[in-house]
Specification:
CATH topology of the largest domain: Rossmann fold
CATH superfamily of the largest domain: von Willebrand factor, type A domain
Largest sheet: 6 strands, mixed
Shape: elongated
Number of helices: 21
Distance between the termini: 99 Å
CATH class of the largest domain: Alpha Beta
Radius of gyration: 36 Å
Protein name: ABC transporter substrate-binding protein
Keywords: Membrane, Transmembrane, Transmembrane helix
CATH architecture of the largest domain: 3-Layer(aba) Sandwich
Number of strands: 21
Helix content: 40-55%
Strand order of the largest sheet: 16-15-12-19-20-21
Structural class: alpha/beta
Number of domains: 3
């Protein structure tokens, strides 16, 4: 240790060891000098070890905490990337960040940010599965930031069990959104829907479901498919929605009369096959017209400047080759559509990204979401069935009476309504339930699944319709009946349902020789009673040669309540009429 010492030590006022040794006595000083050097060296080693261990273990105690909320499907991959990020002690521009990742359904977070009641935990960075949620949230809450970048991609695909794909192609053809609409067309009873059952993900809860609905609607509009067919498809899909993608994929292997065909994200199919390991894997089917992609946007929600820097650093990390490989290994594609080894040309997957459909504008997304919500509103309906004398007249060339034809039309019309509907049945003629009472409640309004006198209400209504007889001497008595039914429906109005009065008649209008309410009095009552905030609409279906005679009055009655009146020529037309009625609920009460 006899060499020269650093001048900065001298300049700082430290005394050289040599000078100190001159003041020390004997061999004791010779022992202390190397000991002191050893201690200093050990201290330096300890400091270095602390730094190394701390860097390996993550950021220092003053690291910026970053709370990330990710969609459940991408949560695992993001967590793995965050773990490496933390261990590396990544700088965020002023210090280092410590990332904690939690998972939450995108619909739940979107609902909370939009002020619709969803519970949102504290977060600084949100990674939902689709920008569709961000678009919807920003329409309600413009303070929510726009996405920074997309961190991954997964196309929306159709999916079926591998065991049924050959038969599916025979009855359905190649995968297409057009084919899905055809298979769910409620008006085409002889179409592919006889052999194929389409399972949908609820668009209100799942972005793959919303993407599929937007894709189908866009393709349908471009090809000139009528609104009634699209509405009919939506109504059919509403009765076969599944809230959870995993449950939908698991149900594909259940055998039944019809082949199940579902909708999923491509990554969801991969994850199902690799985690659940079904005996027969699910196979993705890529729609011929193209599809939408889930784009997993990064939305920085942090307000603090330091946390925002940490979020931006982590978002940058998500775009690195190592992070992108982690995502690819778990079935995702890169933002430009490139798949890894997990998504290759095997088991139905295709390495090449499918054609991407144009992203719909916010107005289209909002309109579709609202349409789905309204089409899924429940139904509360009472049918007023004309049993007057003219209903006993035969219909030339059919072998049926008007009564038989009308009852068959009514039975056919009930089929599209789900079991959650509330329905009832009245009959009307003159003096039907005592003198001056022109109507009789045959089946009270209530849930179709409710038991009435030991019989399910749906079955009871069908039984009554099948066995109804016209009163040979009865007159029509429509006006008094309609006035009573309107008040009943208004008094029992339910805001979560479309409240409707359905009149089934031969169209001869009101005929009450003993008096009763006049046409003018009825129209005034309906106009006075109609409440746009609690709309009860009237739908009239007339069948028979006398129907055109009463069309003017029927139109006036329907118009007073934003309803509609139809004259049908055969039973097969009834489905189209009911689909038209379903379409009206999208604009009610301002159609």
């Amino acid at each position: 240790m006899g060499g020269r010492h650093r001048t900065d030590e001298l300049d700082d006022g430290y005394t050289s060891p040599r000078e100190a040794s001159r003041r020390r006595r004997g061999g004791r000083g010779k022992v202390l000098v190397p000991l002191a050097g050893s201690v200093a060296f050990a201290v330096l080693l300890g400091v270095a070890a602390f730094v190394i261990v701390n860097r390996d273990g993550g950021c220092a105690e003053d690291a910026t905490g970053l709370r990330v909320t990710a969609s459940p499907d991408i949560h695992l991959a993001v967590s793995q990337i965050a773990e490496r990020f933390n261990k590396a002690g990544q700088e965020d521009g002023g210090g280092c960040a410590s990332v904690k990742v939690t998972k939450a359904a995108s619909a739940t977070v979107a609902s909370g940010l939009g002020g619709s009641g969803g519970e949102v935990g504290a977060m600084d960075l949100w990674i939902p599965d689709s920008s569709l949620w961000v678009t919807g949230v920003r329409a309600k809450n413009p303070s929510v930031p726009e996405p920074a970048v997309s961190v991954a991609q997964s196309p929306v695909v159709m999916v079926a069990s591998g065991s049924v794909v050959p038969n599916l192609k025979k009855s359905f053809g190649d995968a297409s959104w057009t084919g899905m609409i055809n298979a769910t067309n409620a008006a085409n009873v002889d179409g592919p829907g006889r052999k194929v059952r389409v399972l949908a993900l609820d668009p209100a809860l799942n972005s793959a479901g919303l993407g599929a609905l937007l894709a189908a609607a866009g393709v349908a509009t471009a090809s000139g498919v009528g609104d009634e067919q699209l509405v009919g498809a939506m109504k059919t899909l509403s009765t076969s929605t599944v809230k959870d993608q995993g449950a939908l994929l698991a149900s594909l292997g259940v055998k039944g009369r019809r082949v199940p065909l579902g909708v999923s994200s491509e990554q969801g199919v991969w994850a199902f096959n690799n985690t659940k390991k079904p005996e027969v894997p699910a196979v993705p089917l890529y729609p011929a017209e193209g599809t939408f992609n889930l784009d997993y946007p990064a939305v920085v929600t942090a307000q603090d400047a330091g946390v925002r820097k940490a979020a931006e650093a982590f978002v940058k990390e998500l775009g690195t080759p190592a992070a992108q490989k982690t995502l690819q290994d778990q079935g995702f594609r890169t933002p430009d559509g490139k798949g890894g080894k997990a998504i290759s040309d095997a088991d139905g997957f295709q390495a090449e990204a499918p054609q991407a459909l144009p992203t719909p504008d916010p107005k289209t997304v909002a309109s579709m979401s609202q349409s789905w919500s309204r089409i899924n509103l429940g139904t509360r309906l009472v049918t007023l069935l004309d049993v007057s004398g003219t209903m006993a007249l035969p219909i030339p060339g059919t072998g049926l009476t008007r009564m038989q034809a009308i009852s068959r039309i009514a039975i056919e019309g009930m089929k599209p309504f789900p079991n959650s509907s509330e329905m009832g049945l009245w009959e009307f003629s003159t003096h039907l339930d005592g003198k001056g009472v022109d109507y009789r409640e045959t089946v009270s309004v209530g849930p179709l699944t409710e038991t009435v006198d030991g019989v399910l209400r749906r079955n009871l209504i069908n039984q009554k319709l099948a066995g109804v007889q016209a009163r040979a001497t009865g007159d029509t008595g429509l006006n008094d009946t309609l006035a009573a039914a309107y008040r009943m429906m208004k008094d029992g109005y339910k805001s979560d349902k479309i409240n409707t009065i359905l009149i089934m008649t031969d169209g001869a209008g009101n005929d009450d020789p003993d008096g009763g309410m006049s046409n003018q009095e009825l129209l005034k009552l309906l106009k006075d009673e109609f409440d746009p905030e609690k709309p009860v609409s009237i739908l009239i279906i007339a069948f028979g040669p006398d129907a055109p005679k009463g069309k003017r009055q029927m139109d006036a009655i329907a118009k007073a309540t934003n309803g509609d009146a139809y004259i049908v020529k055969d039973i097969l037309e009834i489905r189209k009429v009911f689909l038209e009625g379903m379409k009206r609920r999208l604009c009610s009460p301002h159609c």
